[in-house]
Write the structure tokens for this entry.
Amino acid sequence: MDNRNIIMNHYTSSPYKKDFNPDLNYQKIETKSDSCIDHLNIYVKFENNILKDAYFNGEACAIATSSCSILLKNCLNKTVSEIVEYIKNFDNMVNGKDFNLEELKEAIVFKEIVRQGHRKTCAYLPYQGLKKLIDKR
Amino acid sequence: MNIEDFPMLREDLIYLDNGATTFKPQCVIDKITEYYTKYSANAHRGDYDISYKVDQEYENSREIVRKFINARFKEEIIFTSGATESLNMIANGFFGKFIEPDDEILITQTEHASNVLPWFRLVNEKQAKINYIPLDDNHYVTLENVKKAVTPKTKVISLASITNVIGDERPIKEICEFAHQNNIFVVMDGAQSVPHRKTDVIDLDVDFLAFSGHKMCGPTGIGVLYGKKELLEEMEPQNYGGGMNESFDNPNEIYLKELPTRLEAGTPNIAGAIGLGQAIKYLDSIGMKKIEAYEKKLRRYAIEKLINIPYLDIINIESDSGIISFNVDGVFSQDVAYYLNKYKVCVRAGNHCAKILNQETGVLNSLRISLYFYNTESDIDSLVELLSNKEKIVEEML
């Protein structure tokens, strides 16, 4: 599948985009862009420091939405420290530093797109949210 | 019209975000440069020629603004950083002194954040109340609905004269007449109207008016607070410091200067004020009536074309300002804006700082084009052509 299709699939039919479920009692992080209208809510459940389940909702563009979907997909069943490493790796990619290609899996689709400055903020928004949540822990 | 006056219009782009800010004509840029290169001194230091020149230019701008909105006195014109600061000064500096618990402030759900949050803060501090004027089916304010929303507790009605998403023009004059009969003050947020319409504060009889320079060909960081002189006399300065005091010896003996200086503490935005004066001279040279007529005609032209695109949901077909808000069915507004940006068309996606508007319209976000007199039918044609192919929008939005 080419990059465009990966992004569009995650944008239009992400298995992680769900309506809020109050019964689940997950930790929530709300992440909003300063420069545009992207607004995502991410809900996570950690067990023994491992991300066991996660979903998101909100109003955001194709890039922010698909990036959030891929982020959650890639982080499920990872430990907190593995997630921190993963986020750092993504951060390196979007900022043009050395990064581990294999670890990023589908998130690699954003490698070129983030060269459009304003799109970088969109792709990074869910990472910023999850990072904030982990920092709080 | 007047495209040749704007250096930015020589760039390869179509700018349709004039509700956010406007381009500057060369004469405004030159005027600012003149201040920084020929008489770059501080104001109120008339001991030497170039500072005297600053005072003359700065006060001349105040006089230009006075004439432009037909205020009675120069003292009624206070330079601020923009409409936001003006509205905060009105809410805190004036109404902060008079609002009591249970008093009511009347606004609408289509106001810009700058005409909502200062009031929210005030009611929180004073245990007062915010009420909303119900809007009609087009999300318009009618005098009848104002009358219905007013109670004996209503102290102030604060409204944009033209809203920044719906673009409707409110019957401010009629509202003032009714409000004053009932001892209610009226605040007008003129950020989206003063640049586009002739504004006459005497005819409208508004108590306060706020607007920004950068939305009317002036520099950023300069705006105006107009208030009736007797009301401004009562306003508590939000900033204390240099320039605004007569003398002070101890905390109990602070003597302040007269209006307008009393409300302009610190070194003012001299270049901004002088630039705004030049911008107003420029707008006057074209004529506000001509600007209004041109924009209305261009809007009609745009609506006639946009309405033919079946998947376009236009939120404000009826309004007659230069603001058109719409969505492309099934495509997030920001993605459409990114697509248009690829073709150098600048439009705004979002809630446009009117975050409680969605309670009224049910639409969370939208695309907004906002026209000015330097936009052309050709700009509209390019936009319409780009929006006329939905497959292309979806294909190229990433």
Observations:
- The interface with chain A takes residues 332-335, 338, 349-351, 364-365, 397-398 of chain B (CB under 8 Å).
- Residues 287-396 of chain B form a domain with the Aspartate Aminotransferase, domain 1 fold (CATH 3.90.1150.10).
- The mean pLDDT of chain B is 94.
- The CA atoms of residues 207 and 231 of chain B lie 8 Å apart.
